[in-house]
Amino acid sequence: MRNELDIHQCLRVFDKVRRHGVKTESGHHFQGLTASSDFDGYTAFLSSNDVTLTLFFHNKYDLEYRQHGDVDAFVKLLSVIDHAANSELVDGRV
């Protein structure tokens, strides 16, 4: 699994969720993902209902999940949001 995640894609999605998402107590929420970071911004979190991705400094990461199928759905959602144009994101067409 470590080689399947594209860290640069994850960071792009994190940025899109932060820019287009609704701010809540737990972070910014958009299209089923929540993006947040620790107090200094060096550790970023992307989470869905079933998966939490922790992005550390130097492109290291950790995935927490219960079932492997949950990770597959999470990775697919990352790809959909990453490839959507910003106008689609704003209009809610993703």
Question: Would you write up a description of this structure?
Answer:
- The chain has three helices and six strands, in the order αββββββαα.
- The chain is α+β, with helices and mostly antiparallel strands and 94 residues long.
- It has a six-stranded antiparallel beta sheet with strand order 1-2-3-4-5-6, covered by helices on one side.
- The chain is globular.
Summarize the structure in short:
The protein has helices at residues 7-20, 68-83, 86-91; strands spanning 22-24, 27-30, 33-37, 44-47, 51-55, 61-65. With 94 residues, the chain is α+β, with helices and mostly antiparallel strands. The chain has a 6-stranded antiparallel beta sheet, covered by helices on one side.
Number of helices: 3
Helix content: 25-40%
- Beta content: 25-35%
Based on secondary structure, the structural category is alpha+beta
Topology readout:
Blueprint: H1 7-20, E1 22-24, E2 27-30, E3 33-37, E4 44-47, E5 51-55, E6 61-65, H2 68-83, H3 86-91
Antiparallel strand pairs: 1-2, 2-3, 3-4, 4-5, 5-6
